[in-house]
Amino acid sequence: MLSCTVQRITIYYTTNVILHLNYLHKMKKLTTLLSLVLLFTSTVWSQQRYIDEVFDNISETQNVRFSTQVPQPKRGGGWYESIAAGVPINAKEHETSNRDLHMDIFQPFGDNNVKRPVFIVCFGGGFVIGNRKFGDIRELAIRMAKRGYVTAAIDYRLGVNMFDEGASLRGVYRAIQDGRSAVRYFRANAERLGVDPNQIFIGGHSAGAFISLQNAYLDRDVERPASTRKSSYRWGAWLVERTYNLPDQGCLDCAGDNKHVNGKANAVVSLAGGLGFLEHVEGENDVPSIMFHSKNDIIVNYDKGQPFQNFSFLIAGFDLPEAFGSNLVQNRANSVNAPNKFYSYDKRGHDLHVDGLLNSALGRKKLHSDIVPRIAQYLYDARLRPAGFGVSGATVVRLSATNTQTYTADVAKDAQVQWQVEGGKIVKQTGNQVTISWNIPGEHTLSAVPYNTNGAKGNAVKVPVLVMDNLQELKADLQMYPNPSARVLKIKLNEEDINEVKAIVYNERGQTVYHGSLQKQGAQFNLNVLKLPLGKYYIRIQNGERMLHKTFLKY
């Protein structure tokens, strides 16, 4: 946060994105266009959208205004601000001026999906310095956009009074409101921007991580710190102090535009962040969070402590509240079953996501190779992957009877299903249904893979299907008793010269649960079914090339 950013030379990096004009110039011929489309399509399907970088190029829209006329505290001046080049660590909570907030939006170039998830990224800087042009923030936004997200690097209001605990919380609360305003912007403009209003995520580093975690857990008005309501504080510069009354900062979604929309994100990402109050982590209904923190972080404590506590003795009157680091947030989340994932490191320091000290000092662009993949995988598993589902339809098919069957995947109505079959042929597919003509005897597999409207791929569901052939049937009568059976199923054939048979038992899903030979015992063959679960079963009794099929119940 402050210590690492005070040393930083703020350099505005312009990402070298391949220009649209160059791309279009290459597509001169129709054959070239078709080949590029086919190549792109095969690449997207062979890789995993939202996990892998399936897009080579991104487009960027700069200076998009998402919040208008929000009150910004004025700099307070004084000794410490003078030696810190005007960094607003002594903000005047009682004097404000209005300003607009902007973001830079990144999108995968050439993407036709109209319901994409959003990832909003917030810079670090102790709530006193920084902007959306920081190299690490832009790089994180670009890397996620190449995975198929619409992403945004945002600005938020800066200024904290580090000499009054209550007043300092107002600075953090302002930034939380701005993060929610960015969420509201995408949610309110979802159709125009081609995004899914129910899949909007926010993350950040340091102060930006505080913004994201508070978005997840400080989500009710009753949880607001008292100092964010009508309050007062003592402020002074150059030894002149007096008490000032402070206005109510308003509800969580009361600053900025689109106030009618909810600004709570659907998942959050924290890089070296923390919380002010652990009790705000409430339980399994909290949104998913993924946190990264290093034990040797000297800016935001891994466990508990004042931010910058290693340097606070240098500042007379320093009065920031304690914060709970990621380790304790994770412990609290686990104790109340709140969904979370935590990656702990030993020696990465505060800039745990940036690879190399030189990169950290001169622009913070190169990220550690594990950070983005872990973020992408968690968000995919927690929010984007289609939920588990079932497939209904016949799992035992007789070729001599009706060998054409229809199967239905129990997926969301707007999801797509990719079917694969062995031992048969797909003759029709409509929505979540498929019709298959089975033509090869044996035990086969029907598999279904769902895809959400955003292109996220779910886990395959594989259904075993038993296709029975038309071999000559045993002419002998087969008697089974008791049926239903609880312990031993007795099988009797009227052909007395048959002393041994092969028996195969299938469950209703076509899975083999027993396969073996039965020896005649007296007048019948005995099959022990004691360990079978309750339900309906199919049994094949075979003697040479002849066989019989029957059903029985286990109770």
TrEMBL record:
<dbReference type="InterPro" id="IPR049492">
    <property type="entry name" value="BD-FAE-like_dom"/>
</dbReference>
<dbReference type="Pfam" id="PF20434">
    <property type="entry name" value="BD-FAE"/>
</dbReference>
<dbReference type="GO" id="GO:0016787">
    <property type="term" value="F:hydrolase activity"/>
</dbReference>
<dbReference type="Pfam" id="PF18962">
    <property type="entry name" value="Por_Secre_tail"/>
</dbReference>
<dbReference type="InterPro" id="IPR013783">
    <property type="entry name" value="Ig-like_fold"/>
</dbReference>
<keyword id="KW-0378">Hydrolase</keyword>
<protein>
    <submittedName>
        <fullName>Uncharacterized protein</fullName>
    </submittedName>
</protein>
<dbReference type="InterPro" id="IPR050300">
    <property type="entry name" value="GDXG_lipolytic_enzyme"/>
</dbReference>
<feature type="domain" description="BD-FAE-like">
    <location>
        <begin position="103"/>
        <end position="308"/>
    </location>
</feature>
<dbReference type="InterPro" id="IPR029058">
    <property type="entry name" value="AB_hydrolase_fold"/>
</dbReference>
<dbReference type="InterPro" id="IPR026444">
    <property type="entry name" value="Secre_tail"/>
</dbReference>
<feature type="domain" description="Secretion system C-terminal sorting">
    <location>
        <begin position="480"/>
        <end position="549"/>
    </location>
</feature>
